[in-house]
Write a structure and sequence with these properties.
- This protein has three domains: 13-95, Rossmann fold (3-Layer(aba) Sandwich); 142-254, no CATH class; 264-449, Ribosomal Protein S5, domain 2, CATH 3.30.230.10.
- Helices cover 36% and strands 17% of the residues.
- The strands form six sheets. A four-stranded mixed sheet has the order 9-10-12-11.
- It has 453 residues and is an alpha/beta fold.
């Protein structure tokens, strides 16, 4: 306590963060003054918060490329400033979403409320380490304040300042490795978030594997939220969003989803985007709810499968792909030949047990809709499999799968004709909420699944 008393004036004078109102940031104020060469806010503060980032952030247009350089490497170059300049400040963009999150996600993306200068600049947005969902934060009320002792802000800020000399970016590697979808620009923020949480919650430097697991899952969610919005804006360039981590001890791979991407129902009640379809698999007792997402780009006929390691599931996908390729003359037009496209198929487990085989029909209709850019019916799911020869294979655990899909939002579940005899096993309440049309070949499947224009 004597230290605080003797150095009260020193602490009163310390300020480590600054709040900048929207539209007030200039190159001189933020980075470097062109005449004097004085380094701006990035070299003077530990944190710079842009308040109301939904307004225009920068006064100067050339501040955006400087900020992109700084966010990437912590340094920037400016003509007349005498070479590269290094800063230390973290950047925080603070703003509001004025519509329900569900509405924003249906119509655009979570970065859309930001100012026009940055909300469509994918290079800028990709440098954001994480997106903290304000809609999940509690609103302050009188009950959240205490009349007892707490940290004074100057003391707490000094403690945080001292922790800047410490890093735990290697804590992750003691217990876990990151999945294949995380690139260098994803790995860096995940490690930094984990390090920051350890510093905040374990100042005694004592933490466990489960502590690191909790912080890792949080970090993956925060960074994936950024990447999911970039995928909405930039498409295929940001396709790898199926974030996961692998436990070094058990070799189990755990995939991390986003609450807002699922909504109240895991299956969207609106027409499905081209390339998106749902299905369910069974391991005999347990069910899994599966999302298939296909993206096609101009290419030379390459097939890329992500999100699953099971050879049986990959075999389903490859058989479906080969069936389409072998029957292009009857299934596809010449300009839509698979030899003109590279196809990426992502399989995501949304709920339940591990994914099992039997997803070929859902993959088939997702591929066709992606190639032709056709929407699928609202709330669509497809059961069954397609052999390499084109035979339709019935679905096991039919009634349970239809019930599960219906409970999670499916409005239409298209089912192999060979399951017709089992329709009576489906509860009447399920059939009242979900249509169950049947198909016996690929043409009927397309008729019953693709949204009519």
């Amino acid at each position: 306590m004597s230290y605080l008393t003797d150095h009260k004036q020193k602490f009163d004078d310390l300020r480590y963060a600054v709040l900048i109102s929207g539209g007030q940031a200039t190159v001189a104020k933020l980075f470097v003054h062109g005449s004097t060469g004085k380094v701006g806010a990035v070299g003077q503060w530990d944190a710079i918060c842009f308040d109301e980032a939904t307004d225009r952030i920068f006064k100067d247009r050339d501040a955006v490329p400087l900020m992109k350089d700084y966010m990437e490497s912590g340094s920037f170059s400016r003509a007349g400033a005498g070479g590269e300049i290094t800063g230390v400040a973290s950047i925080i963009l603070n703003g509001n979403i004025n519509q329900p999150v569900e509405t924003v996600l249906q119509t655009s993306h979570l970065f859309s409320p930001l100012s026009d200068e940055v909300n469509s600049d994918t290079a800028f947005l990709d440098r954001i380490h994480f997106y903290l969902p304000g809609w999940e934060m509690i609103k302050f009320a009188p009950k959240h304040f205490t009349s007892n002792f707490g940290f004074s802000t100057d003391y707490f800020s000094e403690a945080l300042k001292s922790f800047r000399r410490v890093t735990y970016t290697d804590a992750l590697e003691q217990y876990f490795t990151l999945g294949s979808h995380l690139k260098q620009r994803d790995t860096k923020p995940v490690k930094k978030i984990i390090s920051g949480l350890i510093k905040l919650l374990h100042p005694d430097e004592t933490y466990t594997k489960e502590d690191v697991r909790d912080y890792l899952e949080f970090a993956l969610e925060m960074r994936r939220r950024v990447k999911e919005q970039l995928k909405r804006i930039g498409g295929m360039e940001f396709w790898d969003t199926n974030f996961s981590y692998i436990d070094k001890e058990t070799q189990e791979e755990i995939f991390i989803g986003l609450p807002e991407e699922k909504g109240s129902n895991l299956i969207e009640s609106t027409p499905l985007s081209p390339g998106v379809c749902y299905t369910s698999t069974s391991d005999g007792e347990n069910l899994a709810l599966v999302r298939i997402e296909v993206v096609t780009t101009q290419g030379s006929g390459k097939l890329n499968i992500t999100g699953v390691n099971s050879m049986a599931i990959k075999e389903d996908i490859k058989n479906t792909y080969q069936y389409i390729k072998a029957n292009e003359k009857t299934i596809l037009s010449e300009k839509h030949s698979l030899k003109n496209f590279d196809v990426t198929i992502q399989v995501s487990n949304l709920l339940g047990a591990a994914i099992s085989s039997g997803i070929g029909s859902a993959v088939y209709i997702a591929m066709i809709s992606a190639i032709y850019k056709k929407n699928l019916k609202a709330g669509l799911a497809v059961l069954g499999n397609i052999s390499v020869g084109g035979a339709i294979v019935k679905s096991t655990n039919f009634a349970d799968k239809v019930s599960m899909l219906s409970e999670n939002g499916a409005k239409v579940v298209v089912v192999p004709m060979d399951n017709l005899a089992e329709l009576s096993n489906v509860p009447a309440s399920v059939l009242g909420n979900t249509d169950v049309p049947f198909y016996s070949n690929n043409l009927l499947l397309m008729q019953k699944a693709i949204l009519s224009e």
